[in-house]
Design a protein that fits this description.
The complex is a heterodimer of chains A (254) and B (314). By secondary structure, chain A is of the alpha/beta class. Helix content of chain A is 40%, strand content 23%. Chain A has a 5-stranded mixed β-sheet. With 314 residues, chain B is an alpha/beta fold. Chain B has 2 domains: 152 residues, ATPase, nucleotide binding domain (Nucleotidyltransferase, domain 5); 142 residues, ATPase, nucleotide binding domain (Nucleotidyltransferase, domain 5). Chain B has 10 helices and 10 strands. Classes of the chains: A alpha/beta (254), B alpha/beta (314). Chains A and B meet through helix 5 of A and helix 4 and helix 6 of B.
C-alpha cells in the first residue's frame, strides 16, 4: 500500500511517500504564505520522483501546525503523535523523543510506541529552531555550518538574552565587536539546548533519547544536548522528515 | 546554498527599513548657554535608542534622540554630538553628566551612572509634572511600570526585560514583517471596520506566524496590526496590574508614540494617560517639540544638575 504523509510545519512543508513500510520519496520546501499549494506541489514532485501516479497513492495523512491548510486527507494526526510514530518506527528503542522544529520544541515520553507524557514550549520561541536560525542568518551560515563551527569554539561568550528577538540583537552586537563566529554559535547552541534540556527533564529523560525535527541537523545543538542530559542522543538519517513519516504511517491505518 | 544566500542579501538591500523611526534633535534658541551657571547633561544609552538631554540651569537647552549603534561608548558619543550640533558647546563645557540606560556604565563623558528606573521617575516628573504617580515606560528591549511620589522618587516598579512582546524591538520586528512603516502602525491599526480579537501568541516570533496565517485567510493588514497591537496592550496591562495603578498616569518611550498600543491600553485599564505634552507652560508656548523618548535622559540631566550644585557648594 502506498501512503503519503504531509507535515506542514512552522517553516517547511515536508512530504514522505511510503510503500509497504519503505520510504520511496522525500520532498520539502519552505511553506511561506501558500503552504497548501506548496504541499500539493511537493506531493506531485514526490510522486514523480518515486514514479508513481497520484491514483496509486491510497491514503493521505497530514500533521504539523499548519495542517488545516493541507490538501484533502484521510488521516489527521497531532504533531506529537506523528513525531513518536515516526521516531519509534526508525528507532524502536526510543523512550524519549525530542522534536525540535522551527517554532515548536517538544519533549515526549514514549511507552510502547505511543506518547505517554510531553512538555512543549508553546508560549515562547526561545527553545525552538527559530532561535538559532535567525542567529545563523546573522552569521551568514547555514544551520549545518552553524552547528559544525560551534564545535570548534574554545571560549563561548555568554548570551544574556532569553528572547529570540533580543538574542538576535545581542548576536549582531557580538558580530560588530568582532567576536569569533564559532564562539557566538556555541553560545547560541548552548543557550538553546539548556532550555530544551530543562523542558524535557519535566517529563523525565529515559534512554534511548532520539532527536527529530530540522534542528537535529545542528550538530552543535546535539552536542549541547548530550552534555545537558549526560547521555548520548540518537538522530535518524532524515530527522526533519520524521513527522511526515509518522503521518504516512498513520495513513496506513496501523 | 551560496546562491540562496546571495538572493537573500539582494532582497534585503531592496527592502525598505520599515522598522526605522524618526530621529530628532532640538536646541532652545532663547538660551545663551555661555551665560548659564550650571550646564548639566543626561545620556540614556538604550539597547535600541540613545538620547542626550542638555540643561542650562535646569532649563531644557538641547536634546538629541537617535538609534543606538554597535557599542555603548559609540552610541553615547553620537547622542552627545547630536544634541550638541550647532551649539558651539562641547562636552568639556558640561559641569556634570549622568549616564543611564542599558549601557550606562560605558558612557565615557558621564561621571555617575544612575539606573534608568530612577531616571525615568525623575524625568517623567520633570516632563509631565508632579501629579504623575505611575509611569509606563515602553523601551526598546524592556517595558517598565514605575510608581513615583510627587518628587519623582521611586516607590515601586515592575519590569519585563526577558521577552520582546510589549517592547519596541518586538514592534519593529512585527512592522517589518507585515511590511508597514513603524510610524504608520498606530493609525493603520484603527483604520478598520471592527476591532478584531487579539492575536493569541505572546511571543513575537509566534505572533509573526499567527499573523501570516491571518493574512493567508484574507485578513486586511490593518486588522492584523489591530490584533497585534491589542495583544501587546494586554501584555503590558498585566505588568501594570502587578504594580497597581494610581493616577495620574504617564507613558514614555518609543511605543508611547504608537496610539495603536497606547489607546488600547487606556481602553483596557479604563484610565487615560496624561496628555503627551510638557507640564511647563513655557515649553508649550515656545512650541518645544515633545519627545516621549527623552524621559530617561531628562531625568539623568536633572540628577546631574543637583550633583553639580552639590559640587559647587550650593
Amino acid at each position: 500500500m502506498i501512503t503519503v504523509g504531509i507535515d506542514i510545519g512552522g517553516k517547511d512543508v515536508k512530504v514522505v511517500l511510503l510503500n509497504d513500510g519503505k520510504v520511496i520519496a522525500r520532498t520539502k520546501a519552505v511553506g511561506g504564505f501558500e503552504q497548501g499549494k506548496v504541499a500539493e506541489d511537493l506531493l506531485e514532485k514526490a510522486a514523480k520522483t518515486a514514479d508513481v501516479s497520484r491514483e496509486e497513492i491510497e491514503r493521505v495523512g497530514v500533521t504539523g501546525s499548519g495542517k488545516k491548510y493541507g490538501p484533502p486527507h484521510d488521516v489527521d494526526i497531532t504533531e506529537i503523535g506523528a513525531a513518536v510514530k515516526g521516531a519509534a518506527f526508525l528507532i524502536p528503542s526510543a523512550r524519549t523523543v525530542i522534536d525540535s522544529g522551527a517554532e515548536d520544541s517538544r519533549g515526549i515520553k514514549v511507552e510502547n510506541g505511543a506518547a505517554k507524557d510531553f512538555a512543549t514550549n508553546d508560549k515562547c520561541a526561545a527553545g525552538a529552531g527559530a532561535f538559532c536560525e535567525s542567529m545563523a542568518r546573522a552569521l551568514e551560515l547555514t544551520l549545518e555550518e552553524f552547528g559544525k563551527i560551534s564545535l570548534t569554539s574554545g571560549k563561548p561568550v555568554p548570551i544574556n538574552a532569553q528572547c529570540a528577538v533580543f538574542a538576535e540583537s545581542e548576536v549582531v552586537s557580538l558580530i560588530n565587536s568582532k567576536t569569533p563566529k564559532e564562539d557566538i554559535a556555541k553560545a547560541v547552541n548552548d543557550a538553546l539546548a539548556e532550555r530544551v534540556v530543562a523542558m524535557v527533564k519535566r517529563v523525565g529523560v529515559e534512554k534511548d533519547v532520539v532527536v527529530v525535527g530540522g534542528l537535529a541537523r545542528n550538530v552543535g545543538y546535539l552536542d549541547a544536548l548530550k552534555r545537558g542530559f549526560k547521555t548520548d542522543v540518537l538522530v535518524p538519517e532524515y530527522p526533519e522528515y520524521v513527522g511526515a513519516l509518522g503521518a504516512a504511517l498513520a495513513a496506513t491505518g496501523q | 546554498m551560496t546562491v540562496k544566500a546571495s538572493v537573500t542579501a539582494e532582497t534585503q538591500e531592496e527592502k525598505k527599513e520599515l522598522w526605522r523611526w524618526e530621529e530628532a534633535r532640538w536646541t532652545n534658541p532663547n538660551i545663551d548657554w555661555r551665560k548659564g551657571d550650571i550646564i548639566s547633561a543626561g545620556i540614556d544609552v538604550g539597547s535600541v535608542s540613545t538620547q542626550c538631554v542638555i540643561m542650562v540651569d535646569g532649563e531644557l537647552y538641547a536634546y538629541g534622540n537617535l538609534r543606538s549603534g554597535s557599542g555603548s561608548e559609540d552610541s553615547a558619543w553620537r547622542g552627545a554630538n547630536r544634541a550638541l550640533e550647532g551649539t558651539e558647546m562641547t562636552v568639556d563645557d558640561w559641569d556634570y553628566c549622568v549616564g543611564t540606560g542599558y549601557g550606562r556604565v560605558l558612557i565615557p563623558m558621564s561621571r555617575r551612572a544612575i539606573t534608568e528606573i530612577a531616571c525615568h521617575g525623575r524625568g517623567a516628573n520633570w516632563m509631565y509634572g508632579s501629579s504623575i504617580r505611575t509611569i509606563l515606560d515602553m523601551g526598546g528591549q524592556d517595558c517598565k511600570v514605575i510608581r513615583i511620589d510627587e518628587k519623582g522618587k521611586i516607590l515601586n516598579f515592575a519590569m519585563n526585560d526577558k521577552c520582546a512582546a510589549g517592547a519596541g524591538r518586538g514592534m519593529e520586528v512585527f512592522a517589518d514583517f507585515v511590511g508597514i512603516g513603524i510610524t504608520d502602525v498606530g493609525n493603520r491599526s484603527f483604520d478598520i471596520d471592527e476591532e478584531p480579537k487579539p492575536v493569541s501568541s505572546t511571543c513575537v516570533i509566534f505572533a509573526k506566524s499567527e499573523a501570516s496565517g491571518l493574512l493567508r485567510e484574507g485578513w486586511d493588514v490593518n486588522m492584523v496590526l489591530a490584533a497585534y497591537s491589542s495583544a501587546t496592550a494586554h501584555r503590558v496591562v498585566e505588568l501594570m496590574e502587578l504594580v497597581g495603578l494610581e493616577q495620574q498616569l504617564a507613558i514614555t518611550g518609543g511605543i508611547a508614540k504608537n496610539r495603536g498600543v497606547s489607546e488600547r491600553i487606556e481602553k483596557e485599564i479604563g484610565m487615560k494617560f496624561s496628555a503627551k505634552s510638557w507640564h511647563n507652560p513655557e515649553y508649550v508656548k515656545q512650541n518645544v517639540p515633545f519627545d516621549t523618548q527623552i524621559a530617561g535622559a531628562a531625568g539623568a540631566a536633572v540628577f546631574a544638575k543637583a550633583l553639580a550644585e552639590k559640587e559647587k557648594g550650593k
